[in-house]
Design a protein that fits this description.
There is one protein chain. With about 350 residues, this protein is an alpha+beta fold. Helices cover about 25% and strands about 35% of the residues. The chain contains eight helices and 21 strands. The strands form four sheets. It has a six-stranded mixed beta sheet, sandwiched between helices. A six-stranded mixed beta sheet has the order 13-12-11-15-21-14. Helix 2 crosses helix 3, helix 2 runs parallel beside helix 4 and helix 3 crosses helix 4. The longest helix is centred in the middle third of the chain and has 18 residues.
Length: about 350
């Protein structure tokens, strides 16, 4: 039986369908990321799971028991869930130790047991040295670890995380991604993590749930959603794919502005029908000149380029604009005529 089940879960606000009849099953001990742009419904979904919002339709079940429906909602404090917010929400007047042990004190755990559990969490989150300090004396990363330790202290069945790294700088975010995943693997709780950052989702999740306009676009492992997107939205959102509008010629051949191309995988619309295909920026080869003998290529014009150290990003007009990640040593000025070669095996048809 799944640890957490969302069954046709729906939430409406005046004039807005924020969450549109979504279905999701999460196994015990699984790390699932809800990923999508602002306003896609991911945080609303998380708040319904936590019990802070009531659904307008559908159910939430934990261990087979209904905790939210249109008939009744189990309050947050009775769900055995912990939630971590963007702002950390740790008590500024309490030391690290007091913050971590606060939930255990509220549960009236015996003092000796409370101290043992608190010490174990301080060690696990690498905060033992900072145990008697106050939040104002800590770095952002340390404050986030305090929030994690406090959330884990009561041994929740489910840990909910709402963009917890958004207030950290880039280097700290990288460190904390691995820290959160390490703690998840050590304590084996179920994690539901909300983010708009695909790197966070790819680095931590067992499965990614990609949301758009209140609906689930695709669910899969990081590799599945990256390598095999099922829609234009997923292709653009994960991995920075180019999406081109083409006509299906039949088989694995398509036409773009009178130029035939081969596509090696995906869904096809049917001969004569319009469709799209996606290809990632680093799976395109940029060649000086417009020699069509390059094979499976399109002629284009360089519109702009940017030097980024490890590579150059080019905008190339092939009748539709392409973003291409090319070797840094390839320095072509704006206006250059080029050929763009497509690796058919890395092009994926999107019939819908």
């Amino acid at each position: 039986m799944a640890n957490l089940e969302l069954d046709n879960l729906t939430k409406r606000y005046p004039g807005v369908l924020s969450v549109d009849a979504i279905n999701l099953s999460v196994e015990h001990g699984e790390f699932v990321c809800l990923l999508g742009p602002s306003g896609c419904g991911k945080t609303t979904t998380l708040r319904m799971i936590a019990g802070f919002l009531e659904p307008d339709a559908g159910e939430i079940r934990v261990g087979g028991k209904v905790v939210s429906s249109t008939r009744a909602v189990v309050p947050p404090e009775r769900r055995n869930m912990s939630m971590i917010f963007q702002s950390y929400a740790i008590w500024p007047h309490m030391t690290v130790r007091q913050n971590v042990g606060y939930g255990l004190k509220m549960k009236q755990m015996p003092a000796s047991e409370r101290q043992s559990r608190t010490d174990a969490l301080l060690k696990a989150t690498k905060l033992s040295v900072q145990a008697e300090r106050y939040p104002s004396e800590l770095s952002g990363g340390q404050q986030q670890r305090v929030a994690l330790a406090r959330a884990l202290a009561p041994k929740p069945d489910i840990l909910l995380l709402d963009e917890p790294l958004s207030n950290l700088d880039a280097s700290l975010r990288g460190d904390m991604r691995f820290e959160i995943r390490r703690l998840h693997d050590e304590f084996h709780y179920t994690s539901i993590y909300v983010t708009h950052d695909q790197v966070e989702a790819m680095a931590m999740a067992d499965r990614i749930v990609i949301m758009n306009a209140g609906r689930i676009e695709q669910i899969g492992t990081p590799e599945e959603v990256y390598e095999r997107p099922r829609s234009e939205f997923v292709a653009r959102f994960i991995g920075g794919s180019n999406v081109l509008k083409v006509k299906h010629l039949g088989g694995n051949k398509v036409d773009i502005d009178g130029h035939p191309l081969e596509i090696g995988q995906g869904d096809f619309a049917g001969p004569g029908k319009e469709m799209s295909f996606c290809v990632k920026t680093h799976d395109l080869e940029l060649l000086p000149g417009q020699d069509r003998r390059a094979g499976n290529s399109l002629p284009g014009i360089v519109r702009s380029q940017a030097y980024l150290g490890s590579h150059r990003d080019y905008i190339v007009d092939v009748g539709q604009e392409l973003l291409i990640a090319a070797p840094a040593a390839l320095n072509l000025p704006t206006g250059s005529k080029v050929a763009v070669r497509f690796n058919a095996d890395r092009c994926r048809g999107l019939a819908h």
